[in-house]
Design a protein that fits this description.
By secondary structure, the protein is of the alpha+beta class. It is 40% helix and 21% strand. The protein has 16 helices and 16 strands. α11 crosses α12. The radius of gyration is 23 Å and the shape is globular. The N terminus is likely disordered.
């Protein structure tokens, strides 16, 4: 366990991030895996232990490519129920530390401990206790970054990994930030990094020296202003508590093709089936559907469609998602597909949406199939299916197109 701290206590935002979460849970539960390179997932790497990462294995690398890098790696199937249970236990520790917790994913969160000095000590002391509790009570390693802003706290945790603690004092922010590569900044992906490198920009300090106007000519005005502000450690966002998400989504890596359109459509059906349940369980509705695709060359594309009315109907969402997939069929045939994702955006609470005429009728949807018009009572069907699955389990009822296909399980997620 490594610690690098300062004596300045003004930094009060913690970014707590579990290390190689899925793989760490597997190593915790099976002592034979400890100290060995572990890969979670078969066809696609969902997670890799740090022993595996030392060989260059990363997510979402293909399983065969990962084994070429490390032939003696141990491959284990994912156990999503175990990861969900571990995440809940860790978040119990977070909420017992401070009421100001903003979950980012199932294995990381921001914590504001600025008001706890008199009763809990300095942020560094709080971070130490949090790490110790997660290690002893949950059995998992966790890294904590401490800083004045959320952005810097997240960068600090990334630098401190694995199993470390790092505080960035306000007087040392730029000294810490400027030598780091531009890839550390939020919003800098492969494409943006390549543009910056082509312009001779390699470190965060280079961005600060470049200025926002010249930076805007390289990456665009909006992105330039964003990156320039981050390069100066400017991030005014507070830790949000109880804020509902703006969208929900799910994706599935399917490996390199070829894939028949029927297989791609079945993947969309499986994703939408789960997202519909999540919407209704959270008592929410959506207006916009987004299809996300990753091609064989690992480039990406998105397609979106906005519905006439907000809905939580699986059937209505399914029709829209299938149409988006069909519209992209030529592109998929030409470029292949390695990942499909669906996101539901423009979310709202189900009981705050204005009803559409005619009032009082059950939700219906008119779908055109082979020129015929079919009216479907979707609300009653969804309620019946949800009830059966809640009583007998998610696998008690499935769609015909999914029969005989592997069930990849539901990836753990934060509650809405």
């Amino acid at each position: 366990m490594r610690e690098r701290v300062s004596t300045d206590g003004a930094a009060s935002i913690l970014h707590a991030d579990l290390d190689s979460f899925y793989a760490s849970v597997e190593q915790r539960d099976d002592p034979r895996l400890r100290g060995r390179p572990v890969i979670v997932g078969g066809g696609v790497v969902l997670a890799a232990s740090y022993e595996a990462k030392a060989f260059g294995i990363r997510t979402p690398m293909g399983g065969s490519a990962a084994l070429r890098l490390c032939p003696h790696a141990v491959v284990v199937p994912p156990r999503f129920d175990a990861y969900t249970e571990a995440s809940r236990a860790v978040f119990d520790v977070f909420h017992d530390t401070t009421p100001l917790v903003e979950g980012i994913s199932i294995d990381e969160a921001f914590l504001d401990v600025g008001g706890l000095r008199r009763i809990s000590g300095t942020p560094v002391e709080i971070g130490r206790r949090l790490r110790l509790r997660v290690a002893t009570e949950v059995g998992l390693p966790i890294t904590v970054g401490i800083a004045r802003t959320k952005f810097l706290a997240k960068v600090a945790s990334a630098v401190a990994k694995p199993d470390g603690l790092l505080e960035v004092a306000p007087h040392a922010e730029l000294e810490f930030l400027h030598p780091l590569p531009v890839e550390r900044l939020w919003g800098v992906g492969t494409v943006t990094a390549a543009k910056l490198h082509d312009s001779g920009v390699h470190t965060v300090g280079d961005i600060a020296d470049m200025g926002h106007e010249m930076l805007g000519s390289v990456v665009g005005r909006s992105a330039g202003a964003h990156l320039y502000a981050l390069s100066l450690a400017r991030d005014p966002r507070p830790v949000h508590v109880g804020k509902r998400r703006h969208s929900i989504g799910s994706q599935r890596a399917i490996g390199r093709g070829p894939h028949a359109m029927s297989d791609l459509e079945a993947t969309v059906v499986a994703i939408v089936d789960r997202l519909g349940r999540r919407l209704r369980h959270a008592n929410r509705v959506c207006r916009t559907l987004v299809l996300r695709l990753r091609f064989d060359d690992f480039t990406r594309a998105t397609r979106s469609h906005t519905l006439d009315e907000a809905t939580a109907s699986t059937q209505i969402i399914m029709v829209g998602a299938r149409r988006l997939l069909a519209d992209a069929s030529d592109l998929l045939t030409e470029r292949g597909c390695t990942l499909i994702g669906i996101s539901l955006a423009n979310l709202d609470d189900a009981d705050s949406v204005q009803l559409a005429l005619p009032f009082g009728e059950q939700e219906k949807h008119r779908e055109s199939t082979s020129g015929a018009q079919v009216t479907l009572d979707t609300s009653a069907l969804d309620a019946a299916v949800d009830g059966l699955r809640e009583r007998f389990g998610a696998g008690a009822l499935t769609r015909g197109v999914l029969l005989g296909r592997a069930d990849h399980g539901e990836v753990p997620k934060l509650p809405d």
